[in-house]
Write a structure and sequence with these properties.
Blueprint (H helix, E strand, L loop, with lengths): L5 E5 H15 L4 E5 L1 H5 L3 H10 L4 E4 L2 H9 L5 E4 L8 H6 L3 E4 L2 H14 L3 E6 L14 H9 L4 E7 L11 H22 L4 E5 L1 H6 L7 E2 L15 H6 L6 E6 L2 E5 L4 E2 L5 E2 L4 E6 L16 E4 L2 E6 L7 E4 L11 E8 L2 E3 L1 H8 L3 H11 L1 E5 L6
Parallel strand pairs: 1-20, 2-3, 2-9, 3-4, 4-5, 5-6, 6-7, 7-8, 8-9
Antiparallel strand pairs: 1-10, 10-18, 11-14, 12-13, 14-17, 15-16, 15-18, 16-17, 18-19
Helix pairs in contact: 1-3, 7-8, 11-12
The structure holds pyridoxal-5'-phosphate.
């Protein structure tokens, strides 16, 4: 028997989101589909296949194994390994023709040596840090880095890029634009040495919607492919790009029971009934990504209506108060995230309850649950 819980992924919506992003940036700009973290919980291979069929030819993954899986599944085009090369993975990079991000000369030297031995030449994307304080070469080290790389005959610079730390913060747009100018300056300086045609890219979802001057040759959307805006509260984003959430998270009622007034519910009795209460027991808990931190905050949809989750969320179970929904019975569908009737609970709403962002909610639910794929024409 299949597990009770599932995330449903609508592949038509994924396709439409991709197409709308490509349309927004225009045909002169390529789209790297960011499919790291199991395509933000939507399934690396099914999601990548849909984007591939819709025309995507550059894929962004976190580590080498994901790139290998994509290649083995028949994906053609560039697979950029965003966290770069590591010594143990050099043979796979060469064999599967992956494109690692470059920021470490020791690893690159090894990669180059191995490539020469294998009769290959490996393209890498150089990453400069324009303010993120994360992966990448510091601007003042870029020229010497490029010179050192030129001695390595087994590799070449296929791309040059950076990443914005503040693109999703409207009030910091002037900083993002300054960082973009800085990026362009470093690029010009490095270009004299690189002497080639590199693919230039810097824009994530937020920048690609808000700041067209950051598009360069390619943009790198992640969250928007999956139907969420990097800033849920900014209507400007919604007006510029049409996308829809592709993932729902569903379960079903396994018991319905009546509790008298003054009855505690779940561990610690953090919730005690104040009226005769009808409760639906749901086979959903923190093992399913339904974090214990949602206790006291979460709502679910049953019969198209909202019902509060009451009492501490357990490892595999939680309880919904259905006193106002007398028609609920065992077996009824429960939607933790998604739409039911006229009601909707989004990853943004759940992220608000958890004090996090939609990104984490999607990864959490996607990783913990069976992924079920639908190609039904979306009617919403
Ligand atoms: C994850 C990631 C992205 C995608 O960011 P979104 O905000 O999801 O669009 C782009 N570039 C890099 C380097 C990333 O790590």
């Amino acid at each position: 028997m299949l597990p009770f819980n599932r995330v449903e992924i609508n592949l038509d919506i994924l396709r439409t989101n991709y197409v709308n992003i490509q349309r927004l940036v225009g045909s002169m700009v390529q789209v790297m589909v960011v499919v790291k973290s199991d395509a933000y919980g939507h399934g690396l291979l099914p999601a990548s296949k849909v984007f591939h069929e819709a025309g995507a030819r550059t894929f962004g993954v976190h580590e080498i194994g994901e790139g290998v899986a994509l290649r083995k599944s028949g994906i053609i085009g560039n697979i950029v390994v965003l966290s770069g090369a590591v010594i143990e993975g050099l043979a796979e990079i060469i064999h599967y023709q992956l494109t690692p991000v470059a920021f470490d000369l020791t690893v690159l030297q090894e990669l180059s040596d191995l490539a020469i031995k294998s009769g290959a030449k490996v393209g890498v994307h150089l990453k400069v840090d324009i303010g993120m304080g994360r992966l990448g070469i510091m601007p003042d080290e870029m020229i010497s880095f490029v010179h050192a790389m030129q001695q390595m005959k087994g590799i070449y610079t296929a791309g040059f890029f950076s990443h914005f730390p503040l693109a999703d913060t409207v009030v910091a747009h002037h900083i993002t634009l300054q960082q973009c100018e800085r990026f362009a300056t470093i690029l010009r300086q490095a270009d004299d040495s690189m002497r080639g045609k590199q693919i230039i890219h810097i824009a994530n979802s937020a920048a690609l919607i808000r700041l067209p001057t950051t598009h360069f040759d390619m943009v790198r959307p992640g969250i928007t492919l999956y139907g969420y805006y990097p800033d849920a509260d900014d209507p400007v984003l919604h007006n510029k790009l049409q996308i829809k959430p592709a993932m729902s998270f569903k379960s079903k009622v396994i018991q319905v029971k009546n509790l008298p007034v003054g009855h505690g519910i779940s561990y610690g009795h953090k919730f005690v009934t104040t009226r005769p209460t009808r409760v639906a027991v749901l086979p959903v808990g923190y093992n399913d990504g339904y974090s214990r931190s949602l206790t006291g905050k979460a709502m679910v949809l049953i019969k198209g209506r909202r019902a509060p989750v009451v009492g501490t969320i357990c490892m595999n179970l939680c309880m919904a108060d259905i006193t106002d929904l007398p028609e609920v019975k065992v077996g009824d569908e429960v939607v933790m995230m998604g739409t039911q009737g006229d009601s909707v609970i989004t990853a943004d709403e759940i992220a608000g309850w958890l004090d996090t962002i939609s990104y984490e909610v999607l990864c959490m639910f996607g990783r913990a649950n069976r992924q079920e794929y639908h190609v039904l024409e979306d009617r919403g």
